User: Fold this.
Amino acid sequence: MIKSELIAKLAAENPHLTQRDIERVVGVIFGRMTDSLAKGGRVELRGFGAFSVRSRPSRAGRNPRTGEPVPVKAKHVPFFKSGKELRERLNVD
Assistant:
């Protein structure tokens, strides 16, 4: 599901709200999540999972075309850990 599909589904389920209002709400939610992660925080959605930021140290990479070593800078990457309820719903037999 992409962001526009999420907005369309929410609009269909909530006819009393305009699509513009729903777009604004979704934008604010994602914006707050991004801001929190950018500050080194954690975002937890009970039953769904938790987003956090992990640090990756600098390392020596390799140019796949030439095979030459290339320095790769240290960076921060988003990390998602699924919640128990989500894992259980995905693994229903």
Observations:
- The chain has one domain: 3-56+66-90.
- The first helix runs from residue 3 to 13.
